[in-house]
Amino acid sequence: MRILVVEDDASLNAQLKSALEDAGYVVDTAADGEEGHFLGDTEPYDCVVLDIGLPVMDGISVLQRWREDGRTMPVLILTARDRWSDKVSGIDAGADDYVTKPFHVEEVLARVRALIRRAAGHASSEIRCGPLVVDTRASKAIVDGVTLKLTSHEFRLLSYLAHHVGEVVSRTELVEHLYDQDFDRDSNTIEVFVGRLRKKLAGHDLIETVRGLGYRMTAPDEQDKKAG
Asked: Please, one GO biological process term (predicted)?
């Protein structure tokens, strides 16, 4: 999962980036509204953490432009303002949730997890697919009651497919959501990670290759329906 943090306070920006990365996310950052708007307009993000009081272009304007241009990624706004009218303005501009400064980073992480889950149609922090459980809160995957030993990239890939269970996800989409903007992206590495995951899933055929299109995570009962 790939997150954009738009925050002009350098210390807070770095703190959020570090916490999100520790939680297993790939994170891009911007220090002003103009840069943030550009990134959100040109890169695919699973969620955006957006400060309202930004230089060059304020957060409300950034958000309004994204929504006017059809950008639908979940947005969590950060504001130091306590007035309820500022929060209402953010929600009316298209924000999905808000946190008022000062805040605990754990609250931001929890709200980001919730926004990503809801965007993918999941209500619980545990996403289930047959014998597989992806615990988004603890950043771990469990099969048949056993916690899998996964690298950060393997977990990100498995988590992304689990969030989009039943959907065909292209290699390009996976690359765009698993690596930050500065990474030397190579879609061939996705095949390597998928191969490793299939071995670690202990014989459970949950990741299907859709020839010419990409991959799809399918629960066993859905596979049986197709076969029947």
From this structure: regulation of DNA-templated transcription
